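Invent a record, attention on tokens:
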Amino acid sequence: METNETKSLKELRKISGRGFKILRPSHRKKGLFIVDIGVEGYLDLLFTVANLIKVSILALDSDETCSNQVQNPPTNITNILEIALQLLPYDEAGFLDQSRELFFGENENDIPEN
């Protein structure tokens, strides 16, 4: 006979697939999770990163006292800047460099200017 605790645990496992969607376990490191951020493309991603950095700069330059909701501004700013670093598309930038080299080769001086 199932106890109420066992029934509750089974029900919790059943509904957990519907409830836990934002954090996905990382395959690279145990205890690390992945969160998706929706962007419309690389340009939108770069503007998002730039905006995160700009807000951090404004927060660092601010002389005003922080609200009660922001108790440790340096730590919060550090976290935002770490996220910005993670969002930078380094692999794609390497691909762009390699593509440019393949496309133009030795003729980089022949690239038309705007």
Observations:
- The longest helix spans residues 42-61.
- The longest strand covers residues 24-25.
- The mean pLDDT is 82.
- The helical segments are 4-19, 42-61, 73-87, 90-104.
